[in-house]
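Example record for the data management plan.
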Amino acid sequence: MSYEHRTSYNGEPVGADPTLTPVERETGFTTSDDDDMVRFSTYQPAFLRGILDAEGVTLTDVYVFRGNVVGAMGYFPRSMLAVKSPRRGNSPGRVVSSAVKRGLVPKVAGRARKHLTSEGRKERA
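Corresponding structural encoding:
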C-alpha cells in the first residue's frame, strides 16, 4: 500500500481511505486568538468534496491512494467558518456551505457580509 503525497489538488476523484475505519476518518479544525486562519485536516470524503475546490482554501497536503484523494490538510480564512444552529441532518457534507462551494462570500454569524463599493455604498454579497 502506497500513498502519494501532493501539495495541490488535480481533480482526482474523492474516496474513502480503505485502510481507515469509519471512526478513524475524521475532520479537525484548529485556530488561535492570534491567527486569522483556521487550519484543518480531513479524511472524510463528504468534507473533502466540499473543500478541495472551495475558493479561499489553501491546501498544504493532499493524500492520494489508488487514484482517489483520501485526505487533505490546509487552511482558510476564519471569516469562512460559521457556527450555526444544529443541522437537521448529521451529514458531514453539510458542514461546507453551498456558498463556499460556489465560491461566493460565505455568511458569517447568520448575516450576509456587506462590502463597500467604490462609491461608498454598501452592497450585499
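Summary line stored alongside the record: Helices lie at 45-51, 98-101.
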